[in-house]
Design goal:
Elements lengths: L2 H22 L19 H14 L7 E3 L5 E6 L5 H11 L6 E7 L4 E8 L2 E10 L19
Helix pairs in contact: 2-3
Length: 150
């Protein structure tokens, strides 16, 4: 017989035996995984650093990102066209490998949003988004007109 046929037959029988052993094994048994199932811990400071970078990448000016002293809150003034869901999506991707959840709440009456990054029930950081005030020019006055003193 041809050596190739013998090798193919041995490989086929081995595959069948391995399949039977795997299928007849204990279904509640421990499975082997190369992916580490535990996620890393993250601190509030690291969340703030990631959020600061994310917000600046999304077009928020550095001066519009202000941490509140002695609290886990960060105030963010956002342009009228900015959608906080962009921030939520970007942070969700950034925090994927960490033990952190994102909770977002919107207050349409006040035109503000709150995004919290939590670890279990502990709030690591809260981001308080509010719209930048819109400057309305007075009727008949050019916004760039300078006052003349006579």
């Amino acid at each position: 017989m041809d050596k190739r046929i013998i090798i193919i037959a041995i490989l086929a029988v081995t595959a069948i035996i391995l399949t039977i052993v795997r299928e007849s094994g204990d279904p509640g048994g421990e499975t082997f995984s190369l992916i580490q199932s535990s996620k890393q811990q993250i601190s509030g400071d690291r969340v703030y650093a990631m959020a600061d970078t994310t917000l600046r990448t999304l077009g928020i000016k550095k001066g519009n990102i202000r941490p509140i002293k002695n609290r886990n809150d960060v105030r963010v003034l956002m342009p009228q066209s900015f959608d906080p869901l962009l921030f939520v999506r970007a942070m969700k991707d950034s925090l994927e490998e960490f033990e952190a959840d994102i909770v977002s709440m919107e207050n349409s009456k006040e035109k503000s949003s709150t995004v919290q990054v939590k670890n279990n029930d502990i709030i690591l950081k809260s981001f308080l988004f509010s719209k930048e005030p819109v400057t309305i020019a007075k009727k008949g006055v050019s916004p760039l007109a300078k006052k003349s003193i006579k």
